[in-house]
Amino acid sequence: MNPSEVETAREDTRQNVYQYILKTAHRRLEQTIPGSSDGAFAHLSLVAVLNLLFLLRGDWGSIGDYVTTQKALRALIGDDLLWAEPQKSTPASTELVH
Fold first, then answer.
1. Fewer CB within 10 Å, N or C, the chain?
2. How many Cβ atoms from other residues are within 10 Å of residue 68's Cβ?
3. Three-state SS sequence of 15-64
């Protein structure tokens, strides 16, 4: 593999890991808040979802877990994806007409 292929493979892997963690965190937040609907938090960044989860579910010993989680995610996926707002899907043209 040449260097550009290696870099492309790394970026693809990073994106896949990010998508998986984001989806899992959204699902966990929806389970934590009774009555929330599927996709209710889809507009939040990964860091916002994790902050809410630790705020709602954390206990006295979870501060160390929070810091460890943040450091691991920053190393794994980077700050750009950690703070990125999820891409909004654009509605189909038939959905725009009432």
1. C
2. 11
3. HHHHHHHHHHHHHHHHHHCCCCCCCCCCCCCHHHHHHHHHHHHCCCCHHH
